[in-house]
Amino acid sequence: MPPHMLDFPLLLSTLYERAVRIYPHQEVVSVNADGSLYRSTYGETDDRVRRLAGALDRLGIGRGEVVGTLAWNTHRHHEIYWATANTGRICHTVNLRLSADHIRYIIDHGRDRAVFISGDMVEAAERLAPDLPGVEYWIMLDGDPDATSLPGAVAYEDLISDPAYAGSWPELDERSPHMYCYTSGTTGNPKGVAYTQRSTYMHALSGIVFCPLAARDNIMPVVPMFHAAAWGHPFMAITAGCKITYPGHDLSAEGLVNLIEGERVTFSAGVPTVWLAVQHYLEAHPERDTSSIRSFMCGGSAVPRAMIDWYWRARGIRVIQGWGMTETNPVATFSMLRPEMEDWDWERQLDFIETAGLLIPGLRAKIVDDEGRELPQDGEAFGELLVQGPWVAAEYIRDPRTAETMVDGWLRTGDVCKITPEGYIRVTDRAKDVIKSGGEWISSIDLENLIMAHPKVAEAAVVGVEHSRWQERPIALVVPHPGGEVRDEELVDHLRGKVADWWLPDAYVAVSEIPKTSTGKFDKKVMRDRYGSFLSDRP
Amino acid sequence: MPPHMLDFPLLLSTLYERAVRIYPHQEVVSVNADGSLYRSTYGETDDRVRRLAGALDRLGIGRGEVVGTLAWNTHRHHEIYWATANTGRICHTVNLRLSADHIRYIIDHGRDRAVFISGDMVEAAERLAPDLPGVEYWIMLDGDPDATSLPGAVAYEDLISDPAYAGSWPELDERSPHMYCYTSGTTGNPKGVAYTQRSTYMHALSGIVFCPLAARDNIMPVVPMFHAAAWGHPFMAITAGCKITYPGHDLSAEGLVNLIEGERVTFSAGVPTVWLAVQHYLEAHPERDTSSIRSFMCGGSAVPRAMIDWYWRARGIRVIQGWGMTETNPVATFSMLRPEMEDWDWERQLDFIETAGLLIPGLRAKIVDDEGRELPQDGEAFGELLVQGPWVAAEYIRDPRTAETMVDGWLRTGDVCKITPEGYIRVTDRAKDVIKSGGEWISSIDLENLIMAHPKVAEAAVVGVEHSRWQERPIALVVPHPGGEVRDEELVDHLRGKVADWWLPDAYVAVSEIPKTSTGKFDKKVMRDRYGSFLSDRP
After folding, report:
1. How far is residue A168 from each of residues B101, B130, B183, measured CA to CA in Å?
2. Between residues 14 and 43 of chain A, which touch chain B (CB distance below 8 Å)?
3. How far is CA A176 from the centre of its chain?
4. For the whole model, what pTM was predicted?
5. Tell me: the pLDDT tens digits for B484-521?
6. CA-to-CA distance for B45 and A270, rounded, in angstroms?
7. Which of A380, A394, B86, B368 has a 20 to 30 A CA-CA distance from A452?
């Protein structure tokens, strides 16, 4: 094959260099550990990025080697992102909210040679360090290195006080990794994904094409930089030339509204609980000014319709749902409206805005049944969502669990979805929670929502449990309203006609509460463990 | 290198498939040869694209083989673009305004096995056909195949009446070509560039990131589809999901305004002469409604400041200058404002809007002197512009002239430019027109503009001619206003102090008119031929 076009690799440093050249005065704002504001520009930040790149050279950390971070969303974390990406090193963002065991596993498994730590993580790091002999340097983003026993402790600002890396950024293979992100791992050890230059580049461009950002925007990533690269926004911001506002460790509703109002944020991204807290704060403080903000992206778990509705009606802010995973580097869909929908009434628009949305250009998706057969995209059939594209993972880092998830060039997402005729993806269940009854699937979430709509029911959860004939059958755990009770026949009458008869749960168990995870989700693993043999004597 | 991320190629068919899936009702409108409107949708167009793909299979034109087009901007040309790109064939768009010799050369050199021709090109094709034995099929986009002697003549609509290509589009190498475009070739034979799947894909995404298009847009490409793929807009439109309005062969100002008004066009693209004609038409018809149009892109030659000013003041339309070449597939810059400039007064903004603009994300550029030394980007130094990036050509098709233009991973653009401290590229000359005097460069265009600012001068052109001591020296051809005259000393006084003394022309030649090309540009080649030895006796 002759070259035809230049064999010019897709490198993040090309996007970065252009941004520094064209937007040297664009701002980077960050909240310091003491709550004060740090103000800088792309040009000044570039000097610091180059100093950090020079320092990594002097530490002897080479191309392809890994540095970890245990850090909040700050300008220093941003500098680490770019000093590694531009030089072919790997930035390994570690979720500082994980258990000590998982943090130790992740740092060890990633082969991190240095770890950049936030001041509030020093004590945790001191406990971890003896079990992490591979970490030669603990670099303190704030706080005093003399006050710690950490081996190789050095202050970040001292580290970057020496001469900067000069000249062009190196030519790299576009398929080389620049970042490791590990899944939070509800079962077993976390699994790592290596984001490549090409995959992050394509994610940044394609995301902006569908959900626009421009140099006049001011983007505030609330989703942590240790959580799937803050959904890629530090890379998108540089690509578009946006102002960036990093909230540091203060993720309180008041702190975020202060930044929105004071810095004139136009776009932001975070999980639903963040925006619910901001909603409640704004309801109590109607005088606060959020007029600068056009829309924000919300994802990580299902976005409540009532919240989308409130932001639009009360504040004129459009909530955009995004869906993705660590394995999709990380966003795959946005709930943008199709153009003809823009004339529809709001309630009808909401039916689509509240879905996971439409694929970003460049990706492909399908839903499949248990045998891998493709299902129709008619809004009725549901099956496991499979995706593929330039920013979809092909493997977990040094992990045999790759074989379960990456199959025949597709990523098995573990989400059970419908796809509407309009192309909108609606997540109906987790694959491990869907109930496999005689080769057919029953949606646990559909049943739960129906049962919870009964006036006598406070809360309900449905899980599949072992069944000798049907493999699995649904049972429902039901919490009646305080002081009340609800009979099985009432629930059967309530459900009949709304679902196929074979979907009706085999048993209703009255309980005083539903087991929940630390983040407040129904803990179906606990329920399955507890009720797994509940139907073992049924024919 | 382990894979990390899926090795998923960047194929145009991925963007296309998504657009058909998500926006099946989006419109494709086209002006027929008889002036009537053809109305269709992405969904209906997909059926026709698949029928054409099936027909190409039946004609025995295989993957990697070439079909030519001699056609205007219509829905059928759009179908050929996509049926070839989606199946790994090559669409070779031939500029139907070239001389018969060049058209014959291009079709022969491209090895076109079939040519799709517009009805008004049948006579020309009949004259060419005997010299093009490699063309087995002449496919008539309109008109009657029985009325022509062309070998293998078939009507397009008959060709696509048989069963469609079904199923997924094939997996291709992202570096395989899908389009040939030949430069118009002012000297020698035209040179061909092969656009690849990857290069067009990256151009479409990156262009939209910088100069946004969205599904609510309606884009009207006026620049011909045989001229560097209508500057990529058919690919950008599909990527963003825009409505597309093709003007057919009626490029009159009134015809274009009819489409803008009737179809509610929001974005368009064309050369300055088109928009000047539309301006004059709108000045005479102030009642015509252009309120739907937000901005249009203008390029191909320098865009007059007065025209940009008129559109903004009279119609609220923002003209965006784009710069590029066939060799840059084809757009490299847009004259977008930096965010802080949006608060400036209009005249100051105009100083930047009238430049070639800022690089699109993903490209790199530099200016160099005669010895290839990089020059500062200070808005003063000028040198030849070199560019590189994922959509920059690495070679001409089967053409030894590659070696002159593609050097060390950079494309020599042949344009002499300044780059301002803000990053804006200002084209000051063509490299072949810049005057090389004693190893230093003199801008012919700067001198011309200064001389034409003299009140007694109607028109002036400056060329470099041979000089025994300085290699080249400038001489000025000056057309005085009718009935007037202008003395050399008056011009010298006028120029002195405005340029360095060594820039002053060695001679001023009064002429009645400046030689011009068929497109109205100063024909410096003719001038150099005519006046080449004008200074041969000077010391």
Report:
1. 46, 55, 33
2. 14-15, 17-19, 21-23, 25-26
3. 22
4. 0.94
5. 999 999 999 999 999 999 999 999 999 999 998 766 77
6. 39
7. A380
pLDDT recorded at residue A185: 63
Asked if A207 and A331 count as a contact pair (C-beta separation under 8 A), the reply is: yes
**Best residue in A5, A22, A196, A217 for a mutation probing chain B (most B CBs within 10 Å):** A5
Out of B4, B364, B390, name the one closest to residue A194 (CB): B4
Nearest to B240 among A10, A209, A393 (CB): A209
Q: What is the ipTM of this complex?
A: 0.93
Name residues 99-138 of chain B within 8 A of A (Cβ). Answer: none
Helix axes A272-284, A253-263, angle to 10 degrees: 80
Residues 6+ apart with CB under 8 A from A417: A356, A367, A382, A383, A384, A385, A425, A426, A427, A428
DSSP reduced 3-state for B511: coil
Whether A196 has its CB under 8 Å from any CB of chain B: the answer is yes
A2 touching B (Cβ < 8 Å): yes
Cβ atoms < 10 Å from Cβ of A277: 16
Q: Determine the 3-state secondary structure of B349 from DSSP.
A: helix
B327 among known catalytic residues: yes
**Among candidates B338, B362, B364 on the partner chain, residue whose Cβ is nearest the Cβ of A22:** B338
pLDDT band at B1 (very low <50, low <70, confident <90, very high): very low
Q: Which amino acid is at B508?
A: Y
Angle at A46 between CA A41 and CA A51, to 5 degrees: 130
Q: Which of B14, B41, B183, B402 is the catalytic position? A: B183
Q: Which residue has the tokens 């011909």?
A: B224
The CA distance from B419 to A384, in Å, is 53
DSSP character at residue A470: T
